[in-house]
What we know:
Blueprint: H1 3-25, E1 54-57, E2 63-66, E3 73-75, H2 78-86, E4 93-96, E5 110-111, H3 121-127, E6 131-135, H4 140-148, E7 153-156, H5 162-176, H6 179-200, E8 208-214, E9 222-224, H7 229-236, E10 240-241, E11 250-252, H8 255-261, E12 265-268, H9 277-281, H10 290-293, E13 297-299, H11 302-305, H12 312-323
Parallel strand pairs: 3-4, 3-6, 4-5, 6-7, 8-10, 8-12, 12-13
Antiparallel strand pairs: 1-2, 8-9, 9-11
Helix pairs in contact: 5-6, 6-12
Amino acid sequence: MKMKNKIGLFVSIVLILSVVLGACATEPTVEIVAEPTQVSPTAVPTEEPEPAPIVLEDDLGFEVVLDEPAQAIISISPSLTEILFGIGAGGRLIGRDSNSMYPEAALEAADLGGMWDGIPVEEILAMEPDLVLAGEIFSAEAIAELRDLGLNVYWQANPDDFEGLYENIRDIAVLTGTEDLADELIASLSARVAALEEKLAAVDETPLVFYELDASEPANPWTTGGGTFISYVINKAKGRNLGDSLESEWVQISSEELVAQDPDVILLSDALYGETPESVAERPGWGEIKAVVEGDVYPFDPFILSVPGPRLVEGFEQVAAILHPEIVE
Length: 329
């Protein structure tokens, strides 16, 4: 074959291969179909509903209304001060009566005095509290005076029993918005009460108990009668409150009557004011009383049992331990 023909053949083969390879390398055209765009619905702004006000009727039948849980609180009763701290709202206490000394953190609030000469209205107004808590010691007239000045006052009666105590705790928790913490406190207190009740169930002996509130007149000391929370606790601890036989809830008794009743146990809630088992024994006629003869006269912290707050359960435990040491550790 001539050289010219060979070159022509070679060129033809190259051209054919180029066409074939080019055809193989070319991808078929694919029609691209656009996917529909997802359009999110436009959010319509909505206003958050305002929280409903807190409305609670106190034990005088007056409705207390708060726009929100109280943040600046004045307590002029020790039991209510103790409840505040028990339900986690103690940090909101801005003022207190002088007897509100428990827990120790309460002392950080302004001391408004002992209230013996009346409620310090001007001082309370100047502090601009959201809420004033007052106990049974204050008359309805005194509370009305505070309300007439524009103060939000919640008046609470003393409880008659532990269920009443729990209800008092729940009510204060509503005003402070701490209901969950109140439920925890009540569960703890009720468990302690139930445990002690179980221990006392087998006790048959019920000693006669004289609970001395005040002996500023030693011949006619003050005690607690029936229907009070102190009487309830003494009787629940498997004792018999001597004052139940008297005519009033808070009453004086003569030395002659006391000697005649001859209590088995004497509890001195006025021990903080200097009364001792020895001073009791020196009172005319008291040396004959069984409790004095047998050494069953006990100093007793008045703030444990005389203040109807959460520590009332501790008072129950302490009284039971005195009356029935063989049962209660």
